Amino acid sequence: MRKQEDFSEWYNEMVELANLTDKRYPIKGMNIWTPYGWKIMRFIDTYIREECDATGHDEVCFPLLIPETEFKKEKDHIKGFDAEVYWVTHAGLNELDVRLLLRPTSETAMYPIFALWVRSHTDLPLKTYQLVNTFRYETKQTRAFIRVREIHFFESHTCHVDEADAQLQVEEDFVILENIMEHLCLPYFLLKRTEWDKFPGAYYTVGVDTLLPDGRSLQLGSIHHYRENFSRPFGITYEDEKGEHKFAHQTTFGMSERLVGAVVAVHGDDKGLVLPPDISPFQVVIIPILAKGNVEKVSEECQKLRQELTAAGLRVKLDDSDERPGSKFHNWEIRGVPLRLEMGMRDIDGGKVAYARRDSGAKGSMDRADAVDQVRSLLNVISHDMREKAKAASMDAIQDLGSLDSIPEKVVRFGWCGEEECGRKFEERTGLKMLGSPYQKEEYSGKCIVCGKAVEKPTYAARSM
Predict the structure, then answer these.
(1) Per residue in 84-138, pLDDT tens?
(2) At a CB cut-off of 8 Å and minimum separation 6, what does 50 contact?
(3) In this structure, are residues 285 and 332 in contact, taking their beta carbons and an 8 Å threshold?
(4) How far apart are CA 103 and CA 86, in angstroms?
(5) Terminal Cα distance for the chain, rounded
(6) What pTM, to 2 d.p., does this model score?
(7) DSSP state of 82
(8) CA 93 vs CA 66, 96, 98, 451: distances in Å
């Protein structure tokens, strides 16, 4: 299956061939994490934890079930999720007095407790995060990692003394995001959502979007500034230095297992996955090139190389199975291992190690004596090149749209005055979803594509996954 010919089928096939997930669980959209896919997700989680811990966030783990009484406290939030939640109505044979729901997200689970934790200005900022499963009844066609009903989810929740301090947290979230995306080699856009598409209950929402090869956009996560929109209904107040009681200002930042789907979609090719070195279960695979009379010697040298690389902190797989080298090459290409090393008797006699890069297909050789340093260097180059390639492809996918006469298949950039009426008309006429305007200033001069009013910032739209 060719990626450019039928991206949707290619994606499904690659996920299956690489054995990233098993979709045969008897509840649609609730898939099994297989060992290889779960290792990728765990590495991503590790980087999330590192970034959050380094910025003073504390990890928590709240219960899965939320009482309906707490869920109802925030009307806008209910309106956004009431069609997606799973309800628990019985405990054994006993009907519950208060219905419970499986968390679609955790505001209404955490904030009644935040009201107990936050008492004084000395308790702020409160910076927490958790990595948990959330549940949403996805009504569209499910797709591994991208559209599922049980979602592996990261969410940070913070409380602050005022709007300005909460805004500083939003800016810090952008730094955390960039550091994580560097590990994943993924490009992205920070787009401030329209009023009708922001997170239920938010003051504003910034979507984190990446572009897929078929011209669609994929939302990887979002960052929200709440102001006092949640602290008021949940009573999250603090006493300031003057003894006055004030409502806390809040933010959240969330991403999901869609990050795995994006890695598959953005980096993969017709041969299989292409994994960034930082999140690949194996960064290096060693393939012995055996021939009669040298099996023992080659195997011994490959074992030594594996031990040296492993001792240096690299994740290494020595494929000493009975399959032919060509079959091994194919198997590890499907799984996306960043660097393949090959050693045969000729390489050993010459003091060399042959290599092949998964990302570019480039081949060469390195000195055996410097293999550890050269492998490290190559993995760094692969990471850099993968992100630069993905960034270039992402920018090439964007087309400027000057009128509504013809709509390109790719992501479009255009002028919008900011009025909801014009935005709604654009979506109705084009069938595209408005993603919003760049959060960070982007040079642009044009007119609203609907009403003709002069505008100084662009807006982006695309078909969404």
Answers:
(1) 999 999 999 999 999 999 999 999 999 999 999 999 999 999 999 999 999 999 8
(2) none
(3) yes
(4) 8
(5) 20
(6) 0.96
(7) T
(8) 20, 9, 15, 60
